[in-house]
Design a protein that fits this description.
Number of domains of chain B: 2
Mean pLDDT of chain A: 79
Radius of gyration of chain B: 30 Å
Oligomer: heterodimer
Structural class of chain B: mainly alpha
Mean pLDDT of chain B: 77
Radius of gyration of chain A: 27 Å
Low-confidence stretches of chain B: 54-66, 430-490
Shape of chain B: elongated
Structural class of chain A: mainly alpha
Distance between the termini of chain A: 7 Å
Strand content of chain B: under 5%
Largest sheet of chain B: none
Strand content of chain A: under 5%
Helix content of chain A: 55-70%
Helix content of chain B: 55-70%
Largest interface: A-B, 85 and 85 residues
Order of helices and strands of chain B: HHHHHHHHHHHHHHHHHHHHH
Order of helices and strands of chain A: HHHEEHHHHHHHHHHHHH
Chain lengths: 464, 490
């Protein structure tokens, strides 16, 4: 940890504490490329992939390999149709955007066109009025092959799909085609449902089931990796389906129906609206990213001003998010939590003299509350949801008066401040102090959750 | 309620009459209007327009779904022209009116869409689109031939809407005739084509055995796309509010400079426009201007508010603010060039500035722009310890220092821009209103000598004048306060 300059002790001109990168002796002509462009932490590494996740990967891989072998052995049925859908999936994969929004499940479908094309092939019954005969294995083989072909150029651009994503894609396509193709190819479908409006309705039901299956699988994968409670994860995934997921599903069903009526010409025609949706989503994702970066910058203002130690806001945000996850918060609550945690110290900017090391947890309660109110006033001026301002304003109140999000931020903040102050063995001592103060200041459940999160080691320890 | 100009009233009346005449044949008993389809489409369209009112779905739905054309265009491809005109009527008439007098708009909108639908459907019929949609036995759409009449119909739709819109702009908003139509059609072209193809697929599925339900599914991606777009706008305005909050955080610490950042942003934009920069760079430059002093957040408040002269040591601390600012915003990707402007806005052409002492062209372009804008506003704005100087004086001062401190190109651009547009900053510091008005009138006079009394001694008396933008205005004689970012003694 580096000591921040205090106003009485002005920093030397070389700004060493703030600028870890060595300064060139020759000034850069144009400093647009940031000297240290990645302030966020490196992507979480998982040295060991948990067993269930590996089982899913291996299962999907075996399924895809088996399907490919089968198709190579027995040849493609309706070559033209298979090629057209394969091409669509490849194009969709090529149009993939980066996995920038991994945090937000709403943005988790990076290649909607590819997903919709694969779904449409799985649900394809007729082509321009003529029945088709491709089976489950061919669907899996064609989509998996197209997926791999489309992923190759993405590898070069560093946007390769993750194994999770590939496995999910293969398994959901297999699920949809298992539900549809055998019934259709054996003619049972025509007997049971006929070829009218009910057929379309049945496709919609299948699409919904497939979406459900995908959400269950995705939540299970995340659960296996992180040990977060399953319910909120599933809720998050299902909520995400409302957005681009439902657009993908509807497009898949419509493409299958439209090809049945109008032949393969329907494919390019239908890609247009979906590409439009994708464009909207990527712009949305871009502005969200920028927004988050700006909030983070605002949060770092207190660090640069020397009010709080380096990285404090970021650590509190990460810790709060993890605790929120552990306590079963989801979606919008987590965003509120993150923003509030990032900006919880902003009120200190209004102080004429910084608090020593920004350790607000040791200040008298009245002073703490005053800083919190000042911070809330600043936060209200930002465009964040007003819940965030409430959390910032109430962070110094006793926990019984606080919303859950504020309790979490308060505990995480106090932990980060105390753990740093206590030297080696600080984390344990800090937890002990928090536990002792659970009568009034910190909610016992939150502190226990904090202890769980810390013991899992998912969040970098304080002072790092 | 705003009254409607006479000509606009006449224009709306004519359009409505035209639309009524077009739709009238559908009401004749012999017309064979497919009332089932027309009714369903009309309800669907009205539903799309009304969905924003529904509290459950519409809470975060786009505020205006006007322009939800796939349904209208599906009507164009499905039903006879006169009936297609009717499809638009209920939805457009009942849609929410965001602003302005409601009754004329409730007549105008259905008339506009009715006419456009009628024209598009007539073209579609004339080009044989109907036969191509159900050719051969069993009836199946004949792709790709069916695409051509559909595209033509969509184009006609866009054209008619654009033509009618131009008319209403000219009559109601008094936009000059030539300007009224500019850009209306090209801008609507791409969306209408995409919506047209979606409408075509709706029509194809509508006629297929799968029926209207399958056609409905087409709307879902379109709706979600609109929804996301609205979210995007919400998020973007939230983001801009956050940028403002960054600036306001500076204002909390440094009360002298209220509104300064916003005005520097405006002045930078004036210069950038004058230099003919692309819109995107102009926007980034605006942010550069707004955020140029954000590093003052890193300077101790006690120092910023200090009364009395600063010691050299304190001065050096204040001069760190460009570096602090750069350090803060370097994580914000979209700022791009603006980050270098924040770092270098105190550099001078002769290399005597800080933090790096860059010279001439070494200083990034954005930084040279912001430096001029910063100095200009520092001179013209009123602060608690002194009054602002007239625009003309400030420009003279800038010209005097051009070449040594400022880039002459930027100074010239600012002079030209002020000649053309005047200086009417949206955000002013809390100066006395009379003076504000005087400053504005001076600006309107094109920077001519303004009758603003200034208590400042002549800047020429200073041996090293205009060395630092913030130091340009010499403190009020009675005030012991010193300008913030003091000039480094060399």
């Amino acid at each position: 940890m580096t000591r921040k300059p205090t106003p009485r002790n002005p920093p030397p001109r070389n700004l060493a504490p703030h600028n870890p990168a060595p300064r060139n002796s020759a000034p850069p002509r144009n400093s647009a490329p940031p000297r240290n462009p990645t302030p966020r932490k490196p992507p979480a590494r998982h040295p060991r992939v948990p067993l269930p996740v590996r089982a899913v990967h291996v299962g999907a891989g075996l399924l895809a390999a088996g399907a490919l072998a089968h198709v190579l052995w027995s040849g493609l049925a309706e070559r033209g149709v298979a090629l057209a859908f394969g091409a669509l999936v490849v194009v969709g994969e090529l149009a993939r955007r980066g996995d920038g929004g991994q945090e937000e499940p709403q943005e988790r479908e990076p290649a909607p066109l590819g997903a919709a094309g694969a779904l449409a092939y799985a649900l394809l019954g007729e082509n321009a009025g003529q029945p088709t005969y491709h089976g489950v294995l061919q669907v899996v083989a064609v989509t998996a092959a197209a997926f791999l072909v489309g992923a190759v150029p993405q590898l070069a651009r560093g946007r390769a799909p993750t194994p999770d994503h590939m496995a999910r894609r293969v398994l959901t396509v297999a699920f949809a085609s298992v539900c549809f193709q055998p019934l259709y190819n054996s003619g049972k479908f025509a007997e049971l449902i006929g070829h009218g409006p009910y057929y379309a309705l049945w496709l919609v039901v299948l699409v919904a089931l497939t979406g459900l299956c995908d959400a269950v699988l995705a939540a299970a994968l995340v659960r296996a990796r992180t040990q977060w409670p399953y319910g909120p994860l599933l809720r998050d995934e299902l909520r995400a389906k409302r957005g681009i997921g439902s657009a993908v599903g509807a497009s898949g069903a419509v493409m299958a129906l439209a090809v049945a009526v109008a032949g393969l010409w329907a494919l390019p025609l239908f890609s247009l609206p979906l590409l439009l949706t994708q464009l909207s989503f990527s712009r949305y994702a871009a502005v969200r990213t920028t927004y988050r970066q700006t909030i983070t910058s605002l949060a770092r203002a207190t660090e640069i001003a020397g009010y709080t130690p380096q990285g404090h806001a970021r650590r509190v945000a990460a810790l709060s998010r993890a605790v929120g996850r552990d306590l079963g918060l989801s979606g919008a609550d987590l965003v509120v939590l993150e923003y509030a945690a990032l900006m919880h110290d902003i009120g200190q900017l209004s102080l004429v003299d910084p608090v020593r090391h920004g350790a607000t947890a040791d200040l008298p309660a009245v002073e703490q509350r005053r800083i919190a109110l000042l911070g809330g006033a600043v936060v209200r001026q930002t465009g964040v949801p007003s819940d965030v301002a409430v959390v910032v304003e109430r962070q110094a109140d006793p926990y019984r008066d606080q919303p859950l999000t504020a309790r979490i931020v308060r505990a995480a903040n106090a932990y980060d401040e105390m753990a740093r102050g206590e030297g080696p063995g600080g984390p344990l001592a800090a937890l002990e102090r928090l536990r002792l103060a659970t009568g009034r200041d910190y909610q016992p459940e939150v502190v226990e959750s904090l202890a769980r999160v810390l013991s899992r080691g998912a969040v970098a320890p304080a002072g790092g | 309620m705003r009254s409607v100009p006479l000509w606009a009233g006449v224009y709306i009346g004519l359009t409505a009459t035209g639309a009524a005449l077009c739709a009238a044949p559908a009401l004749a008993p012999s017309a064979g209007t497919p009332w089932g389809a027309v009714g369903l489409l009309a309800v669907l369209y009205a539903g799309c327009e009304q969905i924003t009112r529904c509290r459950f779905i519409g809470r975060r739905a786009p505020r205006s779904m006007a322009g939800f054309f796939p349904v209208l265009l599906a009507g164009v491809f499905l039903v006879p022209p006169a009936a297609a005109a009717l499809v638009a009527v209920p939805g457009a008439a009942l849609a929410r009116v965001e602003l302005g007098p409601a009754p004329p708009r409730r007549i105008w909108r259905p008339a506009r869409y009715g006419l456009a639908c009628w024209a598009a459907a007539s073209v579609h019929v004339a080009l044989g689109g109907r036969e191509l949609l159900a050719a051969g036995t069993p009836a199946a759409p004949d792709f790709p031939l069916a695409l051509a009449p559909a595209a033509a119909a969509a184009l006609v739709f866009a054209l008619v809407v654009a033509a009618l819109d131009g008319g209403i702009l000219a009559t109601a908003e008094r936009v000059p005739l030539r300007a009224a139509w500019r850009g209306l059609f090209p801008r609507s072209l791409a969306p209408v084509l995409v919506h047209g193809f979606a409408g075509l697929m709706m029509a194809v599925l509508w006629r297929s055995p799968y029926g209207a339900l399958a056609a409905l599914l087409v709307l879902l991606p379109m709706y979600i796309s609109c929804w996301v777009f609205a979210q995007y706008h919400r998020e973007r305005s939230a983001h801009q509010a956050t940028i403002r909050a960054l600036v306001q955080a500076v204002d909390i610490k440094d009360e002298y400079t209220r509104g300064h950042s916003e005005r520097v942003g405006e002045a930078s934009v004036l210069i950038a426009r004058e230099l003919g920069m692309e819109d995107e760079r102009v926007e980034v430059l605006r942010f550069a201007g707004i955020l140029h002093d954000v590093g003052k957040l890193g300077v101790p408040t006690r120092l910023l508010r200090k009364d009395g002269p600063l010691t050299p040591e304190e001065r050096r601390v204040i001069e760190l603010h460009p570096e602090y600012g750069h350090e803060m915003v370097r994580g914000i990707g979209f700022l791009g060039e603006a980050r270098s402007a924040i770092l270098h806005h105190h550099e001078r052409l002769d290399g005597s500035g800080y933090p790096y002492g860059l010279m001439g062209r070494q200083i990034p372009e954005f930084a040279r722009v912001v430096a001029v804008a910063d100095a200009f506003d520092a001179m013209t704005s009123t602060r608690s310890y002194r009054r602002g100087r007239p625009v003309a004086d400030a420009l003279t001062e800038l010209k005097r220092c051009a070449g040594r401190q400022f880039d002459p190109q930027m100074v010239r651009a600012l002079v030209r821009a002020l000649d053309r547009h005047g200086w009417r900053p949206a955000v002013t510091s809390d100066e006395p209103e009379a003076q504000q008005a005087a400053a504005a009138s001076a600006a309107r006079a094109g920077g001519a000598a303004a009758p603003v009394a200034t208590a400042d001694p002549a800047p020429a008396a200073d041996p090293a004048p205009a060395t630092d933008p913030a130091a340009v205005p010499v403190p009020h004689p009675r005030s012991t306060r010193t300008p913030l970012a003091g000039d480094l003694p060399r």
